[in-house]
Fold:
Amino acid sequence: MRQDQEDPYQRRSARAYAAADRAGSGSVGSPRGVLYDAVLLDRDGTLIEDVPYNGDPEKVRPVPGARAALDRLRAAGLRLAVVTNQSGLARGYFTGEQMGAVHARVEELLGRFDAWLVCPHDDADGCDCRKPKPGLVYAAARELGTTASRCVLVGDIGRDVAAALAAGAAGVLVPTPVTRPEEVAAAGWVASDLPAAVDEILRRQQAVRPATPPGDPVRTALVVRSDSAGDVLVTGPAIRAVAAGAQRVVLLCGPRGRAAAELLPGVDEIIEHPLPWIDPSPAPIDPEVMWGLTARLRAVGADEAVVFTSFHQSALPLALLLRMAGVGRISAISDDYPGSLLDIRHRVPVGVPEPERALSLAAAAGHRLPDGDEPVLRLRRDAVGPRPADLGAPGYVVLHPGSAASSRACPPDLAARITGALTAAGHRVLVTGSSAEREVTAQVAAAGGTDLGGRTDLAGLAAIVADASAVVVGNTGPAHLAAAAGVPVVSLFAPTVPFGQWGPYRVPTVRLGDAAAPCRDTRAASCPVSGHPCLSGIDPVEVVDALRAFAVSGGGGGR
Ligand SMILES: [Zn+2]
Structure:
């Protein structure tokens, strides 16, 4: 194993739930390389029909197809737990004994569950376990001998999905007639019913395992990920998978992704070159430049190439150049017919998280993450710069208002109000941004934070983020730096691209903003709607509450 794969640098910042989560893995002896050990299921409206405050076993009615779906999960080796809010206990509508009889009846009809986790409290009790708080998810993971990020939770309302995300687990929403439309819009993963949710869980789990066992090690693999820092960072797990089966990995990236490429474990050499069919502001095609790129690719001497793209990008122009450069085996995702350009043409349904989408391509090419390497974002420890000494102790909150795409940036006046609210709640706030964003960071920090605008490159920002207790950020590169450090994210997510594909991956997350705003799925780089309504309606109190859900407290800086 490579040195840079042995020492996950995010453990350095390991402090609370999230960190404990990363430290453990595979303790239930799961097959290596898989995404999940366990499926957590909401009870009422998900497993059985919702009969409000039911204490009567005779009234238990499973949803259609539940037994067979659960048995498919059991047969695949997944552990099952029920995670359920039962405030009827607090309100005295039924007794613990009656609830026990209901649960016995559920097991009679649906088979055994490996654990039952019940929150007996009411909203007014302020407990840590009532969903959308993440306490039940952590408790279930612990009881099942795994970690929250290796769990997927299925539920019928927004509270279920929010609890899953706040713990760093995956969340699938299975809407019923009582599910509110805004909850459906906000969910990153929606299935039509329980059997469909189960099918997709099993499909995603299978998709990251190579169909054929890894063959002889590849001498040199060329991996490709153009576009920006975030795109490169989310491809990290897939690149590590390729690196596990290759003696040498060369990464072709664009100028905007170079700094992120430098941070990725598993990369031995970087070639930086813009690809005009990918870049959002492309230069005209210059035949001399393309011949030069082809010659450079030929000089790599790659045995195989794996071309990673987003769903709206085409791998085929580069595949042609790679063929002309003599690369023998080329793999890529392509909905367009590739003719003889690809040896492995992979297809992926929409909605799959980008890191998994890329991992599934690596798997189609025969590569998988090695034992002990969790499918999380990670950075090279030796590439992350030291944190400036004048920032004080770890445990601050990083607020990063900007984004290369203005449609995904936090409006400066909102960021200033968030800074004020966090400061008032006792948090130390560091405001980060690029040199070009210095005016904004100064304005935001004036509300009570420390202005770090223009003070860091990406590696320096990664170091600052790694010692934060949480990061407040839009859908942009630093959100993925936080995910790579295991630092919880308050995601001010403009819905221009799907949250399920681009949300922070496998890290505790609270999503804020209007997921149904008119900019939804437009992929707009600048906001197409006046007033930036998807984010401008966020109440700074929601950010303070999100930190509380992560158990990040103001004052001492601990969590
Ligand atoms: Zn509770």
Observations:
- The first strand starts at residue 38 and ends at 41.
- The two ends are 33 Å apart (CA to CA).
- The chain is about 35% helix and 15% strand.
- Residues 304 and 329 are 5 Å apart (CA to CA).
